[in-house]
Amino acid sequence: MREPVFVKQNAQKWQRFENSQGQGPDELADSFIQITDDLAYAKTFYPKSKTTAYLNGLAGRFHQSIYKNKSEKGNRFISFWKYELPLLFYKHRMPLLYAFAFFMVFCLIGALSAKYDENFIRLILGDRYVDETNANIARGEPFGVYNSQSEALMFLGIAANNIYVSLVTFVSGIIFSVGSVYHLFQNGVMLGAFQYFFFSKGLGMQSVLVIWIHGTLEISAIVIAGGAGLVLGNSFLFPKTYTRMVSVRKGASEGIKIAIGLVPIFITAAFFEGFVTRHTDMPIWLSVSILASSLLFIIWYVVIYPRKLNNTLNGK
User: Fold this and answer.
1) Which InterPro entries does the annotation name (predicted)?
2) Hey, which of 39, 114, 190, 276 would disulfide with 272, CB 3.0 to 4.6 Å?
3) Three-class SS string for 75-123?
4) Which H/E stretch holds residue 309?
């Protein structure tokens, strides 16, 4: 892109950013992100131009406004969750949507495969798990696996494993996005077969009320991690107006922010699985309340709030 075209496309936005300097640090967070993105582009293609010098000065003023005192870390922490992460969700809403669509298709494949091949469930879930669950069903405790160890150990083990899975799913995206799709395939097929297993035993709705207490957050976060992996992979495949190296660095930075942003969700899901799901005889209203609250939170924080925030910041 020629420099005059770049300036023409962004001049009005930069002017608006300059006029917003009197706002608080949180309100400046999104502007600062966009300015540093434009500065990185300008440094790449117009390293000695007046445009680059102007953006460098503007970014410097934003930095001083946002990080001007010792409350910097606190402000940065709050602005990340309140502004930066939701805006990344909105910016990369299409990769997130693709990840969700892939995952749903893979779940369907897993369920249909389990339905038409009686050995598929054992292949995917393992003989040990299937035998143990069948034994629990015979004893009248179909979900006894969730109270088979102490709460604390279960919580720590599940939290660590889920965070590991999300990071692997994200990092695998560097393999032309195929790596993340493969991990979505693994988890989707497993979930489909797993859920069909309980429905085939006449325990479908009961399994939803028990397992999805923690599964709503856990599965949602895995899908979002897959979307972050697509962001990384697509930055290499489709650099657009950036050089491939600049595009990959940008994709990696934004993708890892999304992946790291999932950590509290995984920890909450692990807490539910370790301390709450084991109470399989809890009232239905309580189970539904936890499940619905988790689902509504994901929909609000990943879809509704990011769109509303983007529209507000852009004066729509």
Assistant:
1) SpoIIM-like
2) 276
3) HHHHHHHHHHHHHHHHHCHHHHHHHHHHHHHHHHHHHHHHHHCCCHHHH
4) helix 305-313
143 CB neighbour count, 10 Å cutoff: 21
- Give this prediction's pTM: 0.76
Q: Give me the phi and psi of 122, to 5 degrees please.
A: -65, -35
Q: What is the pLDDT of residues 198-228, one digit of tens each?
A: 999 999 999 999 999 999 999 999 999 999 9
Instruction: For residue 246, give the nearest of 238, 56, 86, 48 by alpha carbon.
Output: 238
Q: Phi/psi of residue 287, each to 5°?
A: -60, -45
162, 270 contact by CB (below 8 A)? yes
Q: Rounded distance, CA 57 to CA 278, Å?
A: 56
Q: How far apart (Å, rounded) are the C-alpha atoms in residues 104 and 96?
A: 12
Question: Do 49 and 107 belong to one domain?
Answer: no
When divided into structural domains, the chain yields a total of 2
Whether residue 226 lies inside any domain: the answer is yes
Separation between Cα atoms, residue 287 and residue 246, nearest integer Å: 47
Candidates 184, 227, 204; CA nearest to 137 is: 204
Report how far residue 287's alpha carbon sits from residue 154's, in angstroms, rounded to the nearest whole number. 20
Alpha helices in 146-203 (DSSP H): 151-171, 178-200
